[in-house]
Write a structure and sequence with these properties.
Layout (H helix, E strand, L loop, with lengths): L3 E5 L3 H13 L4 E6 L2 E5 L6 E5 L15 E4 L3 H13 L3 E8 L4 E7 L5 E7 L1
Helix pairs in contact: 1-2
Amino acid sequence: MIGYATIGSNDLEKAKAFYDVVLGELGGARTLTMDRLQGYGSPAGGAMLAVCRPYDEQTATPGNGGMVALAAPARDLVDKTYATAIAQGATCEGAPGLRGGEFYGAYFRDLDGNKICVFKVG
């Protein structure tokens, strides 16, 4: 159902370096590349995550309550992706763990303050 999600960045080169490493943990790689946007996807296809400079050329700011959630195939990859993000300069918004039932997730804010969740259900 979701084709892609975009998050803003004020330093696209730093954002690309961050997401090259962090999304690489989940099998993600650069796909669509434009002057003000870098898309990431997986070889299997599906939804894309794009990092971009805002079209209106104003300062990128994270939305209040907005979050992008990235599915991981296993809990150990939730842990590894979270640790990689933190090592790359992300800030913790919730360490890996169960969040009710079978939902295992970890939360961090990227270099621009965008909130990201990495999760595995089951």
